Input
Amino acid sequence: MKTLLWLVLLTCPLWAQQGHIKVSFIAPKSEISKAVHEAFVADRTNGIQVLMDVISQLYKLPRNMDVVFAETGTVNAWYDPEHHAVIMAYDFVEFMIKDAVANKPNEAEAIQYATGAILFTLMHEMGHALIGEMDVPVVGREEDAADEFATMILLDCGPQGHQILGSAADWFYAMGRNQKELAFWDEHSLDQQRLYNILLLMYGHSPNQYGSIVSAIVPKNRLAKALHEYKIKEHRWDKLLAPYTRGH
Output
């Protein structure tokens, strides 16, 4: 997971490979979701598809996959192994927009917050998808592995990737603050744990950039460990995914 992500994207045309990830948007009925759908479809940068192209070009997926944005009646996002697809429910997108409007003071901050949380969730589900499609061995909770995969990839996607992670951390902070019951039994880590895991990886990757922010809420002895841990995690992810990476 180096900054070679973008170099790989530029040097390997999609038509020359197996394992392309196609993003589709199915028109919803809800008025809020309709507006989001129209914004996605009208996006001239095709940003979500570009992000998925990075994954397609970096890893040797055994088959083509789909990412589908659709109204499902469920506030959720998930990997569907039977259909080799990641489903991003417009219901979840709408929930995030309403949450952003309720928690942020202006439109610009609300858009950044919601967009970051949605894209981090997409990358988290892509972590599940790659584990499933390529049969990547995972020891421990797969939910934690998917979070870590998403974070490590986005850290190497430049300022936009870092902005997504910042918004995701903000989202986990808000959910943890509003959480009435600590779901110790859940397959996911607690929201506040997910927040700190993201922040510590961001600090480990760029201590000069994030030191002042993270040091305000994390003890110094934990920060020292985070620098060492990041190097270990980066090495282990590179080694784990090497057999599935194009060019290896």
The longest helix spans residues 107-134.
